Amino acid sequence: MGRAFEFRKGRKMKRWAAMAKTFTRIGKDIVMAVKEGGPNPDANSRLRAVMQNAKAANMPKDNVERAIKNATNKDTANYKEILFEGYAPHGIAILIETASDNNNRTVANIRSYFNKCNGTLGTQGSVEFMFDHTCNFRIPKEGLDAEELELELIDFGAEEVFEDEDGILIYAPFNSFGTIQKELESRNIEILSSGFERIPQITKQLTPAQVADVEKLIEKIEEDDDVMNVYHTMEEQEEA
Predict the structure, then answer these.
(1) 167 lies in the same domain as 216
(2) pTM here?
(3) N or C: which end of the chain has fewer CB within 10 A?
(4) Is 238 among the domain residues?
(5) CATH code, domain with 95
(6) CA distance 176 to 188
(7) Do residues 136 and 113 share a domain?
């Protein structure tokens, strides 16, 4: 198995699952998708993907339809995606994806979290190169063989295909998203969810006390309403 498998296995998804902001995050994704490509999912692949993710997160259909309708209103705030980079204590690189309708507020907030937790907010490009920007798809495993599918999808950009308890996961470079989405749809393979992740190329092992220092900063950042995802180079701890 490759780095995508190890990343998925080690990442503490419980942090997001426990947060009530999941629907808020999906709502922002809907607004950005509609503003970019219109309200018709058949003609907007990004919106189609967000709607699949909403279904996977058990977001009520009425909420999704209302969010799409609201997004077409010209008075609805337009969110801008901004990437923040920096270092947590103990040399751990941090990459933060945000979606904000007020850049000044977001910058001030993110800077304050780093300052309060002995971190350093970096400049553009200071740590992004340490992460591979990937896309991923989750599909049902019934009737499909992960190894065979991997061979078939290599030509479309797939780099890793593997099974977990919830289905088959496909990982590919960021730029392969549209190509793989189109190929899966042409084969009538249901896409349960899809998205993008930044996988650290190298991780660093810390002591429990050092981990607590880094976790303190990560938790503060993740509580911010403008924050969509946080990635880091700290080696994930095994669950007890």
Answers:
(1) no
(2) 0.88
(3) C
(4) no
(5) 3.30.70.980
(6) 18
(7) no
* DSSP assignment string, the chain: --HHHHHHHHS-THHHHT-TTHHHHHHHHHHHHHHHH-S-GGG-HHHHHHHHHHHHTT--HHHHHHHHHHHTSTTSPPPEEEEEEEEEGGGEEEEEEEEES-HHHHHHHHHHHHHHTT-EE--TTSSGGGEEEEEEEEE--TT--HHHHHHHHGGGT--EEEEETTEEEEEEEGGGHHHHHHHHHHTT----EEEEEEEESS-B---HHHHHHHHHHHHHHHTSTTEEEEEE-BPPPPP-
What are 44's two structure tokens? Answer: 């907007």
Query: Per-residue pLDDT tens for 186-234?
Result: 999 999 999 999 999 999 999 999 999 999 999 999 999 999 999 999 9
Mean pLDDT of all residues in the chain?
90
Residue with tokens 């947590």: 88
Residues 6+ apart with CB under 8 A from 5: 160, 162
Whether 235 maps to a domain, the answer reads no
Residue identified by tokens 């259909």 is: 61
